[in-house]
Amino acid sequence: LSGEVFKILAIDNCGNIDSATIGTVVSSISHVPVVVPKCPSSTWLNGSGSIVTTASSNTGSLTVRIIKKNNVSLPSNLVPNLASGGVFTFNNLEPATYIIRYRPNDACNRYFYDTVIIAPYQYPALDRSSAYQCDQNGFSLGAVVSNGVGPFTYEIIGSSPAVPSIVTA
Questions:
Q1: Which residues of 113-127 are buried (b: 16+ CB within 10 A; e: fewer)?
Q2: Concatenated DSSP letters for 83-106?
Q3: Is 87 within 8 Å of 45 (Cβ atoms)?
Q4: Are 149 and 118 in contact (CB under 8 A)?
Q5: How many C-beta atoms surround the C-beta of residue 156 within 10 A?
Q6: Taking Cα atoms as reference points, which of 32, 24, 25 lies closest to residue 8?
Q7: Spatial separation of the C-alpha atoms in residues 93 and 118, rounded to whole Å
């Protein structure tokens, strides 16, 4: 328990006694994984993603590995592509469920885990789209985009009537 103090006594075969008083330190670890989704590519047709996890411990450094993919143990654990200042990044992962293991580099052999899902890419959908002509040459356009990977760009590819033309990126 934190704040506890223990006195350790050592007695040798001659009856000599020595003692030491030590206090306890509560070890703690924090870990927060975040998925950064990516668009489909020639490597991963259903999209991909990166897992960026921020992790720290008050007892020293951590070893962070991905140990399972879709509940199957990996023959060799995935190591981060980038590790800097407690931020560990695993890049170019296909859609799947991943198990991340955190191991504090102390003598306690403890492990902590996160389950992270990289979902398949879903193409964006435009909901509640609208266009208004406010005056002779003024237009107001609006759209609510769901799914996909932002930021989004929009292009007007046609208008009726054709004059005045508002076709533009």
A1: ebebebeebeeeeee
A2: EETTEEEEEEEPSEEEEEEEEESS
A3: no
A4: no
A5: 13
A6: 24
A7: 8
Q: Which residues pair with 115 in a beta bridge?
A: 99
Contacts of 5 (CB under 8 A, 6+ apart): 21, 22, 23, 24
The number of angstroms, rounded, from the C-alpha of 34 to the middle of its chain's C-alpha atoms is 2
Give all strands of the β-sheet with 82-84 in edge-to-edge order.
29-38, 48-57, 87-93, 82-84
How does residue 145 score in pLDDT terms, banded at 50, 70 and 90?
confident
What Cα–Cα distance (Å) separates residue 109 from each residue in 67, 92, 96, 106, 128?
A: 16, 30, 28, 7, 54
Q: Whose CA is closest to 134, among 158, 164, 155, 154? A: 164
Taking only the tens place, the pLDDT of each residue in 55-74 is 998 888 899 999 999 999 99
Bond from prior residue into 80 cis (ω within 30 degrees of 0):
no
Q: Is 63 helix (H, G, I), strand (E, B) or coil?
A: strand
CA nearest to 50, candidates 169, 165, 149? 149
